[in-house]
Amino acid sequence: MGTLNTEPNIARPDDFYARLLAAHEGKSKAESDAINARLVLILSNHIGDAEVLDQALTLAAQS
Amino acid sequence: MLQDRYKLAYKVYPYERSADQDKPDAVRHPVVIVGGGPIGIATAIDLGQQGIATLVLDDHEGIGMGSRAICFAKRCLEVADRYGCGEPMLHKGVVWNLGKVFHKDDKVFEFNLLPEQGHKYPAFINLQQPYFEKYMVDRLRALQAEGAPVEIRGKNRVDALEVKDDHVVLDVMTPDGPYKVEADWLIACDGASSPLRTMLGHEFTGKVFQDSFLIADIKMKGDLKFPTERWFWFEPSHGQGASTLLHKQPDDVWRVDFQIGWDVDRKEEMKEENIRRRLDAFLGKVDYEMVWSSIYTFQCKRMDSFRHGRVFFAGDAAHQVSPFGARGANSGMQDVDNLGWKLGLVIQGKAPERLLDSYSEERIFGADENILNSTRSTDFITPKSEISKIFRDAVLSLAGKATFARPLVNSGRLSVPCVYDGLSLNGPDALAGGPARTRVGAPMVDAPVDGAWLLEKLGGRFQLMTIDADAPETLDVDGIAVTRLALSAKGNPELAERYLGEARSAVYLMRPDQHVAARWDQFDADAVRDAVNTATGRT
Ligand SMILES: Cc1cc2nc3c(=O)[nH]c(=O)nc-3n(C[C@H](O)[C@H](O)[C@H](O)COP(=O)(O)OP(=O)(O)OC[C@H]3O[C@@H](n4cnc5c(N)ncnc54)[C@H](O)[C@@H]3O)c2cc1C
Fold first, then answer.
1. Taking the domains of chain A in order of start, what are their residue ranges?
2. I need a surface site. Which of B72, B227, B231, B297 has the fewest CB within 10 A?
3. By the 8 A CB rule, do B408 and B497 touch?
4. What's the superkingdom here (chain A) (predicted)?
5. CATH number of the domain at B429-535, out of 2.60.34.10, 3.40.50.10490, 3.40.50.11270, 3.40.30.120?
6. What is the spatial distance between Cα B131 and Cα A56, in angstroms, rounded to a whole number?
7. CA-to-CA distance for B318 and B333, rounded, in angstroms?
8. What is the 3 state secondary structure string of B95-150?
9. What Rg do the C-alpha atoms of chain B give, in angstroms?
């Protein structure tokens, strides 16, 4: 059982952020929502660990 | 006065005037069951097999038309097998393994259930509910012919009841007018809208889903046949429903199930021409005959307790689930399996009344699991919010490309029996290395043993199953006889895998309902006595 990594872990943050936005470029709101949902599912599966996912959900739900 | 609420498929218990009706005082019966649906009949068989006098009252004269349930799961069939009517069900039923999931007409993926070998019954069969009920009534009639003290009275409607400390008084309406019946114990199997529940003022709480489904059972004419598979469409582009299910039943009948939304004009939708319009859009140019159709809405609800003194609730009267996952009749059969032996022991004076509370404890545990599963299926099939629809569609769009998303697709989960983990009747789980699937609280898993089926050798009484371990042939625990079933792992690899695991020997204490009460690696008389006492509410 793991712990969610909340420390910086992405090598080139600006590059990643730009790619994230690029994936949504020219998309309608509905298309963007669908991309986000797929992304969440893909990444969640990659993580797999239920504890890590729970911690991520908790963190995300805080606004 | 006694109006039928539905048409009959089989008039198997026509009204006959009973001698009770001519007696000046109400006649007392040890057990009265209200409702001759599948659950009421199964209860009568269970008690009848134990030789306990049982009277069933039903307000109709037989089995209702229209299929309703079509999927009967393994555990339900195993219970029916113990009642002596599983084989005709298996024989008539359709077995399927291949399922296909479509989204907007594209096939997203298909799955094969790949059932585990070495079981008498498959994961489930498709069978029209009237057949299921008919085989049980046939069995009840056979029991009667053998002298079992069971009786069904058709067109006997219970209109009122009065609950006393040690019995219940019923007002029963018949074509010849009213009469009274008394019961030491009453079992309400009077269906989802249970009049008895209402008469007693018990709550039935949970969730109502704002959707309705149109079912059509159709018989194909000509040569065109669909394969024996389960096809499920999410948002089919033929537009005739937000989801659609196609499933095969015996006699070349197919079940088509359209999700049609909440704000529908039921009367309009039920017109044959309108049903045909939907079917034609969906099926294209094929010739078929309509066998049965209905519109249903559903809810996931249960009572707070399934026992109220001398009154028990079982089946749909106690709990209701959505049809996704086929848990209605399947779980009702497990209620009966659970209640029958407990009530039998109490009536025979071998166990304290307290044992009966465990019926509610264990079956509420089961009902909650079923409600959870069927609510989740419903949330997937009919997403309730914008975001849940976004995620649902994301799962479907990924499922074709990435296998990880397939287990997330929920078009109804297979009904599996619950394990009574951590509940009060459980004894010690003291088999080091024993398999988890046969742990204490679990229903027994079938296996071929010495050319026969394990489950055929068990049930209906307390038994000690020994695998390469010694034990006396019988053991009397204050009036409860525990008999031994001596087996060996030698030549029985499935038995070894399902019951020994890493262990070299095992002693299992089995309840009459084929659930594991306790297990050890060796026999110990005191430990077995303690476990029997625990499993019967004596301690
Ligand atoms: C569309 C649909 C599909 C389904 N599919 C499945 C499935 O695939 N698998 C599955 O396991 N389940 C399924 N179910 C659920 C299943 O049909 C029910 O769980 C099952 O019929 C419950 O049996 P029961 O004996 O508890 O109640 P019921 O079958 O409702 O029987 C109750 C009986 O009590 C009688 N009665 C009522 N009031 C009185 C009274 N006052 N006096 C005397 N008698 C009375 C009624 O006439 C009736 O005979 C489905 C249900 C629906 C609607």
1. 13-62
2. B227
3. no
4. Bacteria
5. 3.40.30.120
6. 51
7. 12
8. CCCEEEEEECCEEEEEEECCCCCCCCCCCEEECCHHHHHHHHHHHHHHHHHCCCCE
9. 24
Q: Which residues of B touch A48 (CB under 8 A)?
A: none
Atom of ligand 1 nearest to the CA of B331: 11
Number of H helices, E strands in chain A: 3, 0
- Residue A31 near chain B (CB below 8 Å): no
Query: Is the Cβ pair A42, B398 closer than 8 Å?
Result: yes
Whether B366 and B318 have beta carbons less than 8 Å apart is answered as no
Question: Residue B449: what are its φ and ψ, rounded to 5°?
Answer: -135, 125
Cβ atoms B148, B51 nearer than 8 A: yes
The burial of B147, by beta-carbon neighbours within 10 Å (0-12 exposed, 13-18 middle, 19 or more buried), is given as exposed
> Along the 539 residues of chain B, how does pLDDT read in single tens digits?
789 999 999 999 999 999 999 999 999 999 999 999 999 999 999 999 999 999 999 999 999 987 789 999 999 999 999 999 999 999 999 998 888 999 987 899 998 887 899 999 999 899 999 999 999 999 999 999 999 999 999 999 999 999 999 999 999 999 999 999 999 999 999 999 999 999 999 999 998 888 889 999 999 887 767 788 889 999 887 766 788 999 999 998 999 999 988 888 989 999 999 999 988 888 887 889 999 999 988 889 999 999 999 999 999 999 998 887 788 999 999 999 999 999 999 999 999 999 999 999 999 999 999 999 988 998 899 888 999 999 999 999 999 999 999 999 999 888 889 999 999 999 999 999 999 999 999 999 999 999 999 999 999 999 999 999 999 999 999 999 999 999 999 999 999 999 999 999 999 999 999 999 999 999 999 999 999 999 999 98
Report CB contact under 8 Å: B394, A38.
yes
Counting every residue written for chain A, the total comes to 63
- Are B118 and B494 a contacting pair, CB within 8 Å? yes
Q: Are the C-beta atoms of residues B63 and B9 closer than 8 Å to each other?
A: yes
Residue (of B484, B440, B480, B477) closest to B458 by Cα position? B484
pTM: 0.95
**A20 vs B: CB within 8 A:** no
CATH 3.40.30.120 range(s) for chain B read 429-535
SS3 letters for B443-462? Answer: ECCCCEECCEEHHHHCCCCC
The full length of chain B comes to: 539
Distance from the alpha carbon of residue B152 to the mean position of ligand 1, in angstroms: 17
